[in-house]
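Q: What structure does this chain adopt?
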Amino acid sequence: MTVRVTFGAASDEISLSKGIWSLALAVLEAAGERKFALQTTELTDHDGPTVSNPPHPVSGWRYEPGCGNQGLAQLTVMAAKSRAEVIRLETGPTEARIHARLVGVGSLQDPVIVFTPRGGGPDLTVPIDPTGGRFEFSVPLAELSVGAPGTEVIWDAWVRTAPARMIRLGRYLHDLRDPRTVLRVSRTTVTVDDRRFVGYRPYYTKAGNLAVACLHFTGTPT
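A:
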C-alpha cells in the first residue's frame, strides 16, 4: 500500500500542529475500526542534488518522518525558522533591487537590511517597510563599492527585525542540497555615476545565504 500526503495550511493539504505524531494504519472491519502501529527503521538521506525532506515552500514548516520507540513510525512537525526569503533578484542598467518576504517572523521593530562586509569594516543599512511580510529595496551599489578600483568586496545580507535580533536573507525554501550549483546569477555591470560602474554579482552560499559582491571601476566597461 502506498499513501501520499501533502502537509500544510492550504485547503488541499493536511494541517498539523507542532509536535511528534505517531503513525498508524486504520482498517475498517465488520466489528469496527482497528488500528495497526507502523514499524519503520531509521531513515537515511539519499545521495543526489536534492534532500529527502525539504521545508514547505510557502510556510517554511518542516515535516520529518522518523523512527520512535520500539521502531514505531512517527512524524515530527516543526515551525518555520525565522528567515527572510528572496523572491526575485532584479537588475537593470542603473539599479539593482531585491524582492523578499519574511518567514517565521513574529513582531517587527524598525526593520532594516544590514550589509556586513567580509574582512571587517562598518555595516551599511537600508530601511524597509514590509507589507504583509513582503518587502523590496534598492541595493545601494555606490555605497557597497568601496576600496580601490578593481577590488571586489563581498557583503553578507541580513535583516534586522528588532534592535537585538538579526536573521539571514537568502533562499531556503527549496529541496536543493547545494543552491550554489543551481541558483546562479551572472555578474552584471550597473552604472552608478557618469563614469563610474559597478560589477554586481549576487550569489547564494551552500547554506542558502545571500551574499553580494561588488567591484567598481571607472571608464567605459568592456
